[in-house]
Each structure stands twice: as C-alpha cells, then as structure tokens.
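Tip: read the tokens left to right.
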C-alpha cells in the first residue's frame, strides 16, 4: 500500500507540474487513450494542474463506449430468443441500443445475466446444457486473453452450447485512425498501461516513428499520469518521437507471451466499426475459422449488421475522438445522466461523460449545461 500511495502523493504531483511548466515553450495537445486514465485525470484534477498551453483530450479508450449500436442491438435480439442466455459485464447491460438496452430485454422476459468474465459464462454453459449461452465479449487487448481461453476450453470440452458475440477491439489501429481524422489535434499519446502489460509496446513503435508522434505508456495513478505527460511534452519540445515506458513496473516491451499466444491462436484481426470513428482497418478481433462454431453470429445468425446512429441529442462520437468535451453536449447532466443515459460514455465506468458527471458537474453548471 505504501508503494501505491507514493504514486498518489498530491505534493509530488504538484512538484512535477511545476517542473513541467519550466520546460514548456509553446502549446501542445496530448490525448490519453484509456478511459481509466481519463477518470483518474478528472478525479484528481490533473488537467487543471497543467501549465497554460498544455491541453489534454479524452480518447476512445473505453471499449464499452466504442461498441457500435448495431452490436448492442444484436445482443438484445439474441436475448429475446427463447432458449438463449446472454451474459456480459454489468456496464454493457445498460448501454442504449436503438430501442432499449439489455436490462430492458431482461425485464421483457429475456434471460440476461451479469458476469465478471467469460469463464463465468462458460460455467453457466456447463451448468445449463439445455440452454444456449452467448457471452457478449467486449474489451481491448486487456480482456481478450481471458475470452480466448474460454473459447479454447469450450473447444477442448466439446461444449456445443457456448458462443461469443465478439466486440473485442485493438488500440494501435485506433491511434492511426485518430491521426488520420480531418479534425485531428493530437500531437502525442499517453498509451494505456494495462493494454501494454498484455501486448507489449512493439506495435506502437512504427506509429511513433512513421507519424512522428510521441507515445508514452503510462499508468493510472496521479503521479503516473503527470510523469507521462512530462515525458511526452519533453519529447515534443526536443523534436523527438519515440515510445517511452513510464509504467515500467508493469509493462515490458514483449508483453505477456502466454496471453499474446492464446489471443493469436483463437482470434484474427478484422475491420471493425467504432462508435464515433467509423470502420477502422484491422481494429477488431474475430474468431479464427477453427473456432467458427463458437461465433454467435454463425451459430444463431443471421444477425442484423446494418449500422445504426446515436441519438440525435448525443455527441458521444465527438467526445470519443476528442473533438468535444462532455460538458459541450447540450444534453449533459440534463437529458443525459447515468440513470438515464443517451449514450455509452455516460454509462460506462470508464466513459468520459460519466467521469465529468461525477467530478466536474460544477464546471458543466457554469457553462449552463445543467
């Protein structure tokens, strides 16, 4: 606990902020990629401690938030079918689809269950051999290994009542999509430490080199974030663009070899649509042909894959790519709250809108948004 507390020391954070201010000669814009980092930044006021000219943008680092509406609708449609149990994480059950959410499907008679992971869903499949179990798999590379392990075990046990509705996504292609956007303002990234703990840092090197964009792998505590910001700004000031690892206590360049191996064995990269970012090449994970029988879209299809749009009052897409702040949304804190969300960023525990609602509602009120 003492070790963790060192990274939460507010005096140390302020010292780093003062040190950072001495080395800034011009404005710079950075983006933190991870929703967990966003919540820590907003909660601890890291962005408010930065010197004038340093801007932090919130990125699309919330897998619940970037899951497109059509996949939510597919999960709801499956939950409405007799004989199917849909399992997923708690946040996913409250994300609005075109008409309602998974909680609503459960209230209407569907069997929808909250689980803590795919292995829980696998146990339900073993306990209910007469029912079809669909695990709604959402997450970045951090959670993909456990999903892959569940599929591999289901294959080994020849379970024919377990399948995935897969919405896993990969971070590096999303960074390139953000840099390609017409409204891009990002000059450096704070990369997600937990993703790099699993996958390593090597995939980020070509992005930093060819796009000349500093990428700093950063942890989640206040001091982690301030150190990461300082490293990124130092690179920008010096005209360098490399991958640096602030989170060395957890991240290695090669990542976790066993986790990477099971992901590569079970999944293959595919093009995937992201909320707010559109279709991103090779940004999703889909089951390989050897595991096709565990694909819910194959087993229970056909499923409607037509793209859906967000509620017209919701600017979730703009928030997810850093073009707008949550408080810029006219619905923020009024029509859109955690109890009655219009979009996924207000639902998820990693969503930028939920972070602002919890920690920055005074700011929103001053802007006339409440």
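Filled-in amino acids:
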């Amino acid at each position: 606990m003492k070790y963790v507390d060192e990274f939460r020391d507010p005096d140390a954070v302020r010292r780093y902020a003062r040190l950072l201010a001495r080395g800034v000669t011009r404005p710079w814009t950075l983006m933190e990629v991870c929703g967990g980092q966003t919540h820590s930044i907003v909660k601890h006021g890291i962005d408010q401690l930065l010197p004038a000219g340093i801007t932090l943008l919130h990125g699309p680092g919330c897998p619940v938030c970037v899951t497109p509406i059509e996949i939510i609708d597919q999960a709801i449609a499956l939950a409405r079918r007799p004989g199917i149990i849909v399992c997923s994480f708690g946040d996913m059950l409250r994300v609005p689809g075109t008409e309602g959410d998974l909680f609503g499907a459960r209230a209407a008679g569907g069997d929808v269950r909250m689980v803590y992971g795919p292995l829980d869903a696998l146990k339900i499949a073993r306990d209910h051999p007469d029912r079809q179990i669909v695990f709604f798999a959402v997450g970045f590379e951090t959670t993909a290994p456990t999903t892959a392990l569940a599929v591999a075990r289901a294959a080994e046990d020849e379970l024919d009542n377990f399948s995935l509705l897969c919405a896993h996504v990969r971070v590096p292609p999303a960074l390139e999509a953000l840099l390609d956007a017409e409204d891009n303002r990002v000059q450096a990234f704070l990369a997600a430490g937990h993703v790099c703990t699993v996958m390593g840092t090597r995939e980020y090197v070509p992005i930093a080199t060819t796009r000349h964009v500093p990428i700093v792998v950063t942890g989640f505590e206040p001091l982690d974030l301030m150190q990461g910001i300082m490293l990124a700004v130092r690179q920008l000031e010096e005209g360098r663009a490399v991958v640096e690892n602030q989170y060395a206590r957890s991240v290695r360049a090669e990542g976790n070899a066993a986790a990477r191996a099971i992901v590569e064995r079970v999944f293959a990269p595919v093009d995937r649509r992201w909320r707010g970012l559109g279709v991103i090449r090779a940004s999703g994970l889909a089951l390989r042909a050897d595991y096709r029988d565990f694909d819910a879209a194959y087993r229970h299809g056909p499923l409607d894959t037509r793209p859906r749009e967000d509620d017209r009052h919701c600017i979730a897409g703009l928030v997810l790519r850093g073009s707008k702040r949550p408080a810029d949304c006219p619905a923020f804190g009024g029509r859109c709250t955690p109890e009655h969300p219009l979009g996924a960023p207000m639902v998820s525990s990693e969503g930028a809108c939920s972070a602002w609602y919890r920690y920055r509602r005074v700011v929103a009120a001053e802007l006339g948004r409440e």
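The longest strand covers residues 278-287. The chain has two domains: 1-310, 316-366.
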